[in-house]
Design a protein that fits this description.
With about 325 residues, the protein is an alpha/beta fold. Helix content is about 45%, strand content about 20%. The radius of gyration is 20 Å and the shape is globular.
């Protein structure tokens, strides 16, 4: 089954063609980093306009690279939630246009389910059930994946996400945009024990909270600036990264042990974090557990993951009509459309 995937939830306009949920035939991603860099973050209106300008070209390029036409497709999958509402609507409406014009099934895909599905492309032997840590700029979840479309949230952030903490700290340190990626690289050069940040505490053993940590590190940066001292960027980045990764892994490992999972998976933009990948590998090697990680290019937003998950949604019968709308938020374990 050949599925065209379309992704436009934030600041990447992407299209891809994937066969049977695992074989990537083509992938095109048009980044908007330069447009948003001067603002230090994503500007929703600019993102939406850029998607509208580029989506036709991106989809055409994806089909051309796959050596296919619209008539060769079996279905069209599109991200409809969660994300920036204006950006999502561009992708959803474009996908609806293709589905209507070519009489193809329209498959709505939850963005976070797509991130998990990126692993099926990298790790073709991976099959549910497994436990997945989904970490990105807007989300931090521990998800029990019982089947390809049957998921249960074990834990989630109660406020900010891990990726947002990295991004805001990077901005305060003057590292630039995209902050999380740059912070991760310079953290490799620093002393992770130079600064001590308290780990957040929440009542539920699997939930996260990052708002206090984010405030703590930003206050630390401001205090250093007020003393007219140079910010020890490398050490600060390394210390913050260690605190966040230790916190994420502590909860994730605890859930894996308590729930009896031996297959561990990571997904989302922060799954590219160097220390996170290293820490997970060390733990799994030591405890005889299987670890599955998406290749680095599939950690960031892309359409291959949407097409991959779209295949499994279609098999389950989750298709939509032309009344499909976009939604800024939606739970991963019980999405509706």
């Amino acid at each position: 089954m050949i599925v065209l995937g379309i992704e436009s939830s934030c600041d990447e306009t992407a299209a891809a063609v994937v066969q049977d949920g695992k074989v990537e035939l083509s992938s095109v991603v048009m980044s908007q980093i330069k447009e948003h860099e001067i603002y230090g973050g994503v500007v929703p209106e600019i993102a939406s306009r850029s998607h509208a300008e580029n989506i036709g070209v991106v989809v055409s390029d994806a089909l051309k690279k796959a050596g296919l036409s619209f008539d060769d497709l079996d279905a069209v999958a599109v991200t409809y939630t969660p994300g920036l509402i204006g950006a999502l609507l561009v992708g959803v409406n474009f996908a609806k246009g293709i589905a209507f014009a070519k009489n193809k099934p329209l498959i709505p895909v939850h963005h976070l389910r797509g991130h998990i599905a990126a692993n099926y492309i990298t790790n073709k032997e991976l099959k549910p059930p497994f436990l997945c840590l989904v970490v990105s700029g807007g989300h931090s979840h521990i998800v029990e994946v019982k089947d390809y479309t049957d998921m249960n949230i074990i834990g989630r952030t109660l406020d900010d996400a891990a990726g947002e903490t990295f991004d805001k700290a990077a901005r305060a340190m003057g590292i630039g945009y995209p902050g999380g990626v740059k912070l991760d690289k310079i953290a490799e050069l620093g002393n992770a024990l130079a600064f001590e940040f308290p780990k957040p505490k929440v009542k539920d053993q699997y939930n996260f909270s990052f708002s206090g940590l984010k405030t703590n590190v930003i206050n630390k940066i401001h205090n250093i600036k007020q003393k007219s001292d140079d910010i020890p960027v490398n050490d600060l980045a390394a210390s913050l990264r260690k605190t966040v990764v230790d916190y994420l892994c502590e909860k994730f490992f605890q859930a894996a042990e308590n729930l009896g999972h031996n297959k561990l998976v990571i997904a989302g933009g922060v799954s590219a974090n160097i220390l996170l990948r290293r820490t997970l590998k060390e733990y799994c090697d030591k405890n005889n557990k299987q670890l599955f990680m998406p290749e680095l290019r599939l950690c960031a937003d892309n359409a291959s993951m949407i097409a991959a998950q779209g295949y499994y949604e279609y098999i389950k019968g989750n298709t939509a009509d032309l009344n499909l709308n976009a939604y800024a938020t939606m739970p991963i374990d019980n999405p509706t459309f």
